[in-house]
Amino acid sequence: MQHKATPDATLRKSLKARHMTMIALGGSIGTGLFLASGGAVAEAGPGGALLAYAAVGLMVYFLMTSLGELATFMPESGSFNTYAGRFVDPAFGFAMGWNFWYNWAVTIAAELAAATVLIKYWFPESHSAWWSLIFLAVIFALNALTVKGYGESEYWFAMIKIVTVVIFLAVGVLMIFGIMGGPAVGFANFTVGDAPFHGGFFAVLGVFMAAGFSFQGTELIGVAAGESENPRDNVPRAIRQIFWRILFFYILAILVIGLIIPYTNPNLLRGDISDIGVSPFTLVFEKAGLAIAASVMNAVILTSVLSAGNSGMYAATRVLFALAREGKAPRILGRVNRRGIPMNALLITTAVGMLAFLASLYGDGVVYNWLLNASGMCGFITWVGIAVSHYRFRRAFTAQGHSLSELPYKARWFPFGPLFAFALCIIVIIGQGADAFTGQEIDWKRMIATYMSVPLFLILWFGYKWIKRTKVVPLKACDLSSDASSDK
User: Fold this and answer.
1) 90-119 vs 79-87: helix axis angle to the nearest 10?
2) In Å, how far are 23, 136, 304, 381 from 157, measured between CA atoms?
3) What single string gives the DSSP state of each residue in 157-211?
4) What does the radius of gyration of the chain's CA atoms come to, in whole angstroms?
5) In the chain, N or C: fewer CB atoms in 10 Å?
6) Given this model, what pLDDT does residue 35 score?
7) How far apart are CA 476 and CA 467, in angstroms?
8) How far apart are alpha carbons 68 and 17 in whole angstroms?
9) Measured between alpha carbons, how far is residue 387 from residues 95, 107, 411, 476 in Å?
10) Minimal CA–CA distance to 354: which of 368, 364, 344, 341?
């Protein structure tokens, strides 16, 4: 039974077009680009890294067009679980919602841990717990004030990242042609050793996995659509720009790194969050003669980490709110305050994020590492759910006699797009722990840590299905009304 919202107890539609665009972009630029890109070039060579990021970028583009079609026709703050529940099975929607909430609640903890490491670049003797509390308080405040507060903070966080990448690309191009930082490097580093492809198929596959994690967060626009002023205009505008931004910010950045830094450079392998001095961005800036590169990049990556935590808090809160409204979480979590903020859901999400972070401070961090590993696969499960939901939605739409001209935004290349995204996500999920099997003995501990979120998702799905006796929704019975959020 659905809990009907009263007029004074609904989310506020305060996100403007510029907020939506930056949320879509900001979600796709973070530590995956600033740090993991260097390891990708080192592992698979410049050509292998480009191939992997291009393939994942294409998959993400199709996923976002699928989500764009759903979110413009039916803007919902609990988009993933609502769509899955309506067009596939209420039990599938239940599992999707809790999977997504868990993913981002634990991600908050991961970002808090990363932020404390980054801040110690300037304050090495300070205590981690105090910094984590300060960062958590800032993120909580941005989400507790108004939804516009979240939108504004994400706008400026994303702007910092964009400016950094644009400057990086400009400096990189000048270096490639010898205008800055010494003689022209041209394509010389694409022929070093066995470049452009290094390590063979499994190396490229490994980078493919890492690239998938780098792009996670782009789906946040689907959650934000429910609080957009004009989702039927703002969401398609943001979606249309994603392809070119993925091409510009990721593919060109990987190309510049591969051209300027040889994949044999040992510093590329050390691009860890605790060693910002060897971020590939830092290496390029330092090679160009910019001495303060490490400190500047540390500040930029700190804003990226806070942005990810901020987005995680927002997304997890909204999905928990939607689950409560659909009767799939305690009803009290479906209430909002006078400012249109689901405060109870926000408090629970904050508490879980903080508890997960505290687990990293005590003992040897085993609990925290297991939580983090379990959440790692959740993003890919969400992507699978988006592809399946869109495929079923489009088939239900035509089965019920609707014309595609009725859709405010139509995803191109249907059904190839969602099927391609579905297939690649399944390959990533299956192959994620392939290295656990490559040794003489199976690394059971690594395998369980990698795959544990898959059986958890299946338990949620089939457990709810068994208890509630739900069935797959027939295409002609799918609820296509755009003003409700209940599962039939």
Assistant:
1) 160
2) 10, 16, 7, 27
3) HHHHHHHHHHHHHHHHHHHHTTSSSSS--TTGGGSSTTTTS-SHHHHHHHHHHHH
4) 22
5) N
6) 76
7) 25
8) 14
9) 15, 23, 12, 19
10) 368
By the 10 Å C-beta count (0-12 exposed, 13-18 middle, 19+ buried), 298 is classed as middle
The owner of tokens 């942005």 is 307
Give the angle 394-399-404 at the CA atoms, nearest 5°. 50
What is the spatial distance between Cα 58 and Cα 120, in angstroms, rounded to a whole number?
A: 37
Max Cα distance, the chain (Å): 69
What the block records as the tokens of 2 is 């659905």
Residue 15 — φ and ψ, nearest 5°? -80, 125
Question: Token pair of 257, please?
Answer: 């790194």
The closest alpha carbon to 210, from 269, 159, 295, 155, belongs to: 269
3-state helix, strand, coil in the chain (%, to 5): 70, 0, 30
Q: What is the amino acid identity at position 318?
A: R
Q: Write the DSSP assignment of 36-66 as a string of letters.
A: IHHHHHHHHHHHHHHHHHHHHHHHHHHHHHH
Centre a 10 Å sphere on the Cβ of residue 276 and count the other Cβ atoms it contains. Answer: 24
Query: What tens digit of pLDDT does each residue of 10-60 get?
Result: 666 667 767 777 776 666 677 778 877 888 888 888 899 999 888 888 898
Low-confidence ranges of the chain (pLDDT < 50): 1-8, 363-364, 484-488
> H or E segment at 216?
none
Is residue 40 within 8 A of residue 49, CB to CB? The reply is yes
Per-residue burial over 435-468, b if 16 or more Cβ lie within 10 Å, else e, is: bbeeeeeeeeeebebbbbbbebbeebbeebbeee
> What is the C-alpha separation between 274 and 283, in angstroms, rounded?
15
Q: In 20-151, at which residue ranges do the beta strands (DSSP E only) sit?
A: none
Collapsed DSSP state (helix, strand, coil) of residue 290: coil
Q: What are the tens digits of pLDDT across the range 128-149?
A: 778 888 888 988 998 888 777 7
